[in-house]
Each structure stands twice: as structure tokens, then as C-alpha cells.
Design a protein that fits this description.
175 residues, mainly alpha, 5 helices
């Protein structure tokens, strides 16, 4: 309804000031962009054709200025359609960026919870278990003692890298 009202007012204004040769004919170009962006990209082309045919039927003999205005109106329609399509793509991309940003925050929260609870607890349990087994080294064969010591060191390194990862995630999210 709003587009119809604005279109009728613009056409009446142009018809009352000289029709296709009016000095206000350029308002139709803005109207095309308005319709294409806020209604539908293809609607600007349809409106352009309808207005052009309407002016051709209203004024059978056209001057060069009138013909130039009508041709410019017809050439402006694809441009309005292109810009409105790009505008709609930009809006869609911004919505996707917002969704991805929200998903990244959720993933960050999940990673921090996992690092601070599950990972830390499981690695601490594993380190404790290996240290308990290591307390009875005299019962364990030599080649297995080396592997057990290596496992203990690897678990400590893993535990430390989990802490460092948590610090990095916290640092990235604070920025």
C-alpha cells in the first residue's frame, strides 16, 4: 500500500509538471530504487515498463528530451535491480555473520567448560593413577618402568598444554 501511494503521488506530481518532459522526472529513478530495494528486485523493472508505457500512451508525439527521459528510466531499472540484489545479499551475509559469531561464542563456552572440568579432572586422575602404579616400581620390569615414566611425563605435559590452551582461549575472547 505504501509503495502504491508513493508511486501515485510521484506520477501525479510529474504529470502535473509536464509529463515525460518534466524537470522532476528524475524522481522516478529514486522511486525505482526504492521499489527495488524495499519491495522486490524485479518490481522496479515492472514499474519502469508500466510507467514508460503509460507515458507513451499519454503523449503520442515525443520530443527528444521526453524520449531521453523514458529511455533513461528503462535503463535505470536493471541498475536498480542489481543494486537491490546486492543489498539483499549483504543483509543475508550480515545475518550469517551474526549467527556464526553466536555459534563461536557457544563453542568457546563449551571448550572452556570441557577444559576446566572434564579434561582437567581426567588428566589429574590419570596422573594420580600412574604415580600410584609408579610407587611400586620394584615389582615392574625395567622396560615397562621406562614406558610408565614416559607416560607420566606425557600426562604432565598434556595437563600443562590444557592450561595453556585455556589461557589462550580466554585471551582471544577478551580481545
Amino acid at each position: 500500500i505504501n509503495i502504491t501511494i508513493i508511486t501515485v503521488i510521484t506520477i501525479i506530481l510529474i504529470l502535473s509538471t509536464g509529463g515525460a518532459g518534466s524537470m522532476l522526472f528524475w524522481l522516478l529513478n529514486f522511486l525505482l530504487f526504492f521499489v527495488a530495494v524495499f519491495f522486490r528486485p524485479g518490481a522496479g523493472l515492472t514499474l519502469s515498463l508500466a510507467i514508460g508505457i503509460g507515458f507513451l500512451l499519454n503523449e503520442p508525439l515525443l520530443t527528444t528530451a521526453q524520449l531521453t527521459n523514458l529511455v533513461s528510466l528503462l535503463l535505470m531499472a536493471p541498475l536498480a535491480m542489481f543494486f537491490s540484489t546486492q543489498y539483499l545479499r549483504l543483509i543475508a551475509a550480515q545475518k550469517q555473520i551474526k549467527v556464526l559469531s553466536d555459534q563461536a561464542k557457544d563453542e568457546e563456552t563449551a571448550a572452556l567448560i570441557w577444559l576446566s572440568l572434564d579434561f582437567r579432572n581426567q588428566v589429574e586422575k590419570a596422573i594420580d593413577l600412574v604415580s600410584q602404579i609408579s610407587s611400586n616400581l620394584s615389582l615392574i620390569p625395567y622396560h615397562q618402568r621406562d614406558k610408565l615414566n614416559q607416560l607420566y611425563l606425557d600426562l604432565k605435559i598434556l595437563f600443562q598444554s590444557g592450561r595453556e590452551l585455556k589461557k589462550k582461549i580466554d585471551g582471544i575472547t577478551e580481545e
